[in-house]
Amino acid sequence: MIYFIVNNNLHYIWSRAILEKISKINTEEDFSLIRFEPSALTMAEHDDIYENVYRSQGFFTSFWQLLNPIYMYKVKQNIKRIIFKKDDIVFLFTEYEIGNHYIVKRAKRKGAKVFIIDEGIGTYIINNYPYVFRGSSLKQRIIDYIIRYAIGFYDSRRLTGTNLLYFPRLDDKYYDGYILFYNFPLERSMPKVYVRFPGLKEELKNRDSNSILILGQGLNDFYLDDKEYIDSLLAILEVAAKSFRYVYFKFHHCEIKYLDRPEFKKLRKRLKELEIKIIDFDKPVAVENMISTLDHRPKFVVSYFSTALLNLFAVGCQPIFACHLLEKKCVDFEVVRTLLESVNYNFVSCYSDITPQYSSALTLDKIYTLDFTFQDFYKGLAYEKG
User: Fold this and answer.
1) What's the mean pLDDT in 160-172?
2) Fewer CB within 10 Å: C terminus or N terminus of the chain?
3) Are residues 195 and 73 in the same domain?
């Protein structure tokens, strides 16, 4: 049995893509899905392709939940319904949800193989050098103590950086490897396997060089205040409206809860004045799937350091990263810059460089592994099992 642990819509989409690739070479393989809810996971339309679908509440959706031993006991008991076996394979995409840690440890005790899968830019930010294990506030140290000792996650440690409030990491000894889609370095001691990105396709034709898509990224959640974030978005929108005939904007799903705030009202008002088309943000559709439905398929896509920029490059868009243009600097943005410099990315020097003449200077072989597929990786596992 192959298990996918999913915590958001991107995980859900990629799990299906990986499932389809494995099914092409082994029609006898069985698949199960483990969903953590409530979370950023809202999609459910493909649940029926899995033999089993398990649902669980998250372990850490609020500080007060950690202080509730009855809640923790119930979540653990629910997860214990999943019976792992020696020949099973478990794929997960993030360590942020400590419930994932609990499942991984249970699976490893039964001899299953466990692999964590690249989920985009965040994977490389979290797992590279500027981040260290440390406690920077009394509340964070309390959270550490509760997770490691009160509820028994001894091998889960909190990773913190300049702008990272909380991110738990499980000891590398519990993983059989990290499956990576992008040719960026990763500071983890487990084996690393670089495979061809499942979403990689031939370049889609009919990209309109007079069309651009701008993606919100909710930087006001961690990095900027509302005004700093919206002022930056407005600067991008003003340039795009002058330089491109067709301009699309998509709010990030995390921004929906902020739409009635004054700065976001100002943004929505200006979007209307500039006649910029707002992509439906109330539908759980990933931008990677949505972009091909637009009347004028954009050749250009702009955001700060969204994984979607790389994913859309895989289908023929020119990605424009903008986090380095923000006045406020932080370690996360510097890591992104270092990663992109490693593949000779061409940065815009200012917002006014966002024009139809821009070229990222990227090529597929710079960003992706092209000659080793997920099917190749799976065949190796199947050979070991056989």
Assistant:
1) 67
2) C
3) yes
The CATH number linked to 251 is 3.40.50
pTM of the full structure: 0.86
Residues of the chain with pLDDT > 70, as a percent, come to: 86
pLDDT at 128 > cutoff 90: no
Residues 216 and 173 in one domain: no
Give the tens place of pLDDT for each residue, 173-205. Answer: 999 999 999 999 888 899 999 998 877 765 556
Domain that holds residue 266: 208-362
Tell whether 54 and 37 lie within a shared domain: yes
Q: How many domains does the chain have?
A: 2
Write the pLDDT tens digit of every residue in 101-114: 999 999 999 999 99
